[in-house]
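Input sequence (191 aa), recorded before submission:
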Amino acid sequence: RDFCLSRGLGDVYKRQTQRVEEGRALCNLSNQAIGLNILEGKRNGQFDKDIIDAAVERIHEWVLNNNVTHVCCIPSLRKKQLVPNMAKKIAEQLKLPFIDCIKKAKENEPQKKMITTFSQKENIDGVFKIIKGSVPEDSKLLLIDDIVDSRWTITVVGALLKNAGANKVFPFCLGKITQYYWTQRERRKNT
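Predicted structure, token format:
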């Protein structure tokens, strides 16, 4: 089986059994201290040790309490090693295996450029696929991304992981974009 969300399977993530668990974020991206550090790391192509350590501290107990078995991450074609390197470091500190199980099948526009939630969903349709046989059956996965805006990427990739055999998917990101972030960003542009 090739697990790739396409227009024919567009509502696969709507089923209750395909939903991800409630996720966690290190911080809202509008956080002046940590948020700016996350953005700097993204620009520089590497997150510093303080961010990795803070991420592990934030999720360690949550990961233990939910018996997470493996770590995986959302890949990118633009900055291919940014998120995998971060996820591998987090996995190492959590003493969990990292699995490279998600591939980005094609390039798409950044989600932040999409105006509506419908356009965000459409923008990732068919973009990700799960590598055959890479997801351990009945696993509990920590799914890591750097910055989350619409949550559609997490939703769709989580459904694909569950279709591929994962029991549960626990999303985690460094920075979560909120309406406040966009308001402040626009305000800074206009001054």
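Checked by second reader. Residues 1-13 have pLDDT under 50 and may be disordered.
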